[in-house]
Structures are given as C-alpha cells and as structure tokens.
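User: I'm writing a short methods note and want a consistent example. For Glutamate--tRNA ligase, I'll paste the sequence; you return only the structure tokens, no commentary, since I'll be parsing the reply automatically.
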Amino acid sequence: MTAAQIVTRIAPSPTGFMHIGTARAALFNWLYARGRGGKFLLRIEDTDRERSTDEATQAILNGLTWLGLDWDGDAVSQFARADRHADIANEMLASGAAYKCFSTQEEIQAFREAARAEGKSTLFQSPWRDADATTHPDAPYVVRLRAPRDGATVVNDEIQGEVTFQNANLDDMVLLRSDGTPTYMLAVVVDDHDMGVTHVIRGDDHLNNAARQIQIYNAMSWPLPVYAHMPLVHGDDGKKLSKRHGATGVEEYRDMGYPAAAMRNYLTRLGWSHGDDEFFSDEQARAWFDLSGIGKAPARLDMKKLNNISGQHMAAADDAALLHEYKEYLAGLGQNLPNADKEAQLAQAMCFLKQSAKTFEQLTEKSWFIFAERPLSYEPKSAKALNNVSRGILSELTPHLQNVSWNRDALEAAATAVAEAHEIGLGKIAAPLRAALAGRTATPSVFDMMLVIGRDETIARIADAIAFEEPSAPT
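Assistant:
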C-alpha cells in the first residue's frame, strides 16, 4: 500500500499587498510538497466582500509567480464555495452536531455585561443549545457548533508540540450567520477537507483556530490534517514586522531588485535551518526542507543577510538567465533596454557586473557606463580627476589605443607603458580613465569597460574628457 500523497496549501486573504510573512508560509508549503512529490494548492480566502479586491488577488498571483512558487490546478475562490459550506452546516444541524441559536446581539451583550459584573466568565453559553425544536420562534437564527463542554481539545503540532485547550474555555462558535453566510472557521475546514489537504503549515497566530477547527473535523468524522504552526516574522528589533521596519510586501522586494532565487533562499532560511548552510540552491532546499528544522522562536528579518545571500546568488547565476530576469525587473518598473546593441553589451558585461552587485538596482548603477550618452556629465569627484596633467596623459594614451589589439592584455600593456613613461603607477591613469569612460568614480575595471563599449566609443569618450575644461576654483 502506497502512502497518501502530500497536499499542502496557502490560503491568503486578498485585502492588500502580499505580506512577506505570507510569502514565507507559501514557500514552506511549496517546499514541503515539492520535495515529496506532493501537490501545492492555492485558495483565495475572499469571503470578506467589503475588503477583498481583484487588485489584491492579482497581487497574490503576481507575488507567487515572481517567487517561482507554482501551484497545482486553478486557484480556488472560497467565496464561490459558500453553498458547499452552508450544506455542511445544515448537515451538522441535521445530525445534532450543531444547533439553531436565536439569541440576539443585544441579549449576548447583556449576558456578557452581567457576567463581567459578577466576575464570571463572559464566554457565551447559548440557552438554545438544548432547547426543544418545537419551541423555536419564527425569527432569524445562527447555526452554532455543539462543542464538547468537558475534557480538552489537543492540537498535536509538528512545531509547537502537544498544545492542550480546555473545552470549557471554547464556546459554541457560529458556523452560519443569520443571513445564511458561512463563517471563516467553517469555510476553512470544509475547503481543506474537500481539497484533500494533508498538511496545514501556517503562522502560529492560527494555533488557537486549530483547536476550534479540530472540533468541526471531529463533528464531521473527517480525518485531521497534520498541523504545523510556525512562528511569525519579526523585525530586527524583535517586534512584529511592520512598515517601520522597512519593506513588508513581496512586490517591494521585487522592485528593489532582489532576484527571486535569492528571496527563496533567504526566506527558506528565515526560521528554518539545515545545519550551518546559508547559501543553497532550489534543488537542495526541496531535498532538505522538513518541518523539524523550523524553530519555535520568531524569525527576524535581517537585511544584511538578505543582501549577502542576494549577492551570492547573482554571482553564481547563469549570465543569460540573469539578463532575462534583469529585463523583467526593468519591465516591472516600466523601463526597457534602449536597443539590441546595448543589450548585447550588457550581456557581454554581465560576467563581471554580477560579481559585485547584490541587487538589480545595483546592477543598473554598475552598468551605467554602457547606457551613458556622450557627452558624459562628470560627477564632482570625477571632474577633479580630469585635471591638466591627467588630460595630458590621456592624450598620450590615445594613439596607443588607436592601434593596439582590442583585448585585455594589450590594453593593460598600453596603459602600463604610458604610466611607466611618466614614472607613475597604473592607478594614476585608471582614475582619469574611469572618469572619461563613465563620469563616475565607482565603476567596473577600466579595461572591462573599454572591452565592452569598444574602440571607437572608448576613444570618443576619452577625446571628450581631454577637451573637458576643469572648473575654476571660486574666488
């Protein structure tokens, strides 16, 4: 007999941007399923009709797609399954696992105020729980779960361990509202059961919900899924992640230029560990990921670690694949590469640009020399490097560049020869060359830049720099 197929899911609410914590939960579910030949499902919990929007739903789809977290089948709309949820509530009503409660909001509020005044529990206990059906009024009602009053409900959690909830502290929760619409608690259980979800891996803010949801499973005699409630993501100060800590939405990280592989690596490592491994591939993550590696303490978002991991992924990436993802990054910002020639130059430069860039934003900065148009504007520090002496040296270098073979060794030899003639180090020539080629002080190697932009453009930019008039000092 073969083991049942693993089925996990992510079930975000489309009420805003896709939070980085939701993305990590999705990633953990995806890794667990994909590493075991299972299915990863997507359900959009859009029952809150006032707050759910099509834009937020699209943000979820975009975020998962950008992260490379493919889901099986179509995304399921929870709202579209409302009739199925109601059918289960009515089935529970017929079996006696649920009952009709006619208590009004005013009566419930009055009960709680009286209990509070007497120092008693404010947990509402409906007077209709054991009422004779013949005494039911012709009035609006909700359907409540007939929860056990004695004993305890135990959540056997793969991360938190055995967590016990006394049933005396759990009320008869509402399954169907008075207008016939299902509640979140009922919908989640029905959907997870119908979708065949075997493992519910989610944030520990849902741990209390698990106890209530288990009672619905038991009432329906449905098998329980495996629960794994992981700690939430906190900021670097140990407090719940919020806007004051920086970016909290997945699309913000995409727009900041982090490669998707780097985000997958970093988010996998955020609260989960595999020995001392920090940098790893998707294949390794799928093979290694298990629930036992998830810690019980809240994970802390660390931008320094993210940048470090991102830099490693960019350096290790295939040049062509990195260029493709860079173009997608630009497109997301509403930008494109100017033409095929510039794209070819960028492809040629990718092998050295990626070695020092940690994000695509930094890649844009470091590739500036490719896209700069003559005449270049010089940053103040670069302008200072183009003094009378250095411009004279550039003039001497130019004839060598016009005739030399256009390869790195020959270019470096030509520059070295001019430097030695002036009894200066090569660095003294590199500074004005850097200014001439890019107009900036922080650039790739001058010889790498020259090879990429070619002989004609190199000589033309140097000629512009030679003609540059050093700003006079203020009097």
